[in-house]
What we know:
Layout: E1 2-6, H1 23-39, E2 44-49, H2 55-61, E3 70-75, E4 80-84, E5 100-103, H3 120-124, E6 134-138, H4 158-167, E7 172-175, H5 178-181, H6 192-215, H7 222-226, E8 241-244, E9 265-272, E10 275-282, H8 297-315, H9 322-332, H10 335-338, E11 346-347, E12 371-374, E13 390-394, H11 397-406, H12 408-423, E14 433-435, E15 452-456
Parallel strand pairs: 2-6, 4-5, 6-7
Antiparallel strand pairs: 1-15, 2-3, 3-4, 8-9, 9-10, 11-12, 12-13, 13-14
Helix pairs in contact: 6-11, 8-9, 11-12
Amino acid sequence: MIKYKKISQPEIEEDLCPVLITDETIEHRKERVLEKMKDEGVDTLVIYADLEHSGNFEYLCGFVPRFEEALLVLHQSGKAYMVLGNENFNKAEKSRIPVIGVRMPQLSLPNQPMFEGKSVADILSVCELSTSKTIGLVGWKNFVGGMEDGSKLFDMPYFLVSAIQKLSPNATLVNKTSIFIGRGGVRQVNNANEIAHYEFGAALSGNCILNAMNKMEVGMSELEVATELGAFGQYHNVVTIMASGERFVKANIYPTCKSIKLGDPISMTTSFKGGLQSRGGYAVAKSEELDAVSKNYLERLAKPYYNAVTEWVSTIQIGMQGGLLYEHIETIFPKKDYGWYLNPGHLSSDEEWMASPIYSGSKEIIKSGMIFQVDIIPSVEGFAGASCESGVFIADESLRQELEKDYPKVWERILKRQAYMREVLGINLPEHVLPTSNATLFYRPFFLNKEMALTVEGGQ
């Protein structure tokens, strides 16, 4: 079913422009969070953020605390306090929801002036925590399925948790990150405005990965190729990867001056808010250029892997349980043969990996408005990795109509991507599966052959 043949590559998408989250969307987000708090008997949420773990904070506030830390204290009444360090305190007035700003120097960079002269508990005392009976602490993980009670694991600094306990000694503290990212969490599903917002970063990732693949030649350095993996000064939400040959030499994880050699394994990743693109394969133009051990790479790994990811997008249905999709991938691409062990697909948002409803036995329902990374990571001894990780939006007819009406340029790009995946790649792509970028499931496992790619023979 999977063929390696000469095809036209996707076109680079021009005139991409960020779409901002609207006031109406922010208000709707807040209403949903407050409804969840009421339903789950939570009087107050304390939402923690730092630069890399800020999605739940940003969801309501609209920004991240950059190099500092921050708290959003949200009461069931809707009243909110924003606790910020020295250099972000002026951002309280920019918050997308109304907040009362509270300065806490302890959230600032090391050795900055602690001019408040107050303890952490003293500063937090103005946030009206003492009367709360149930306080939900929100970090960035909901600890599900482990040996411990996840509701009592708090992924925020101890100095904050202990101050909250001191202020509210009779309150019940519980991990409530699930309000945002867990089963039924408010951030699992996106409206048309949110999809258009995240499409910008996902589209940038597609352009970047195509440009980097097209640039690569033997003799170039990792740095030269990696210059194509950034765009417009946008913030990466993962570490950028451009690695040739042996990886993690002296624990280095960044591109270097190392020159690409014929036959090198290649790993390449770039990601912005909304979507990641990753590619893995070899710096060769044909199988004959691989060493004796790796010569069977296409048949042993690349083609079965590509069959799995194209089956993934062909199979996913609105209303299906995540566990059924997991079992389907396990059936056609068994873990014991291909060495994958993480979730075969996960949700994306401001974070590259937000959470995943796709795991063994999952009864979580696939819903319209979800943003997925089609992410299966095989590991077969003797071979380089295989990867064409990409993103898709899941959208029912109503959501598709909203996108077409309110964001016609985004919709036009989506239609072109669908047509390419069906007509050129041969993928049986359902109407409800919308590619987040031009590079979704475009896979050249041999990076030096700029004309050949994997396709589905006999597809749509």
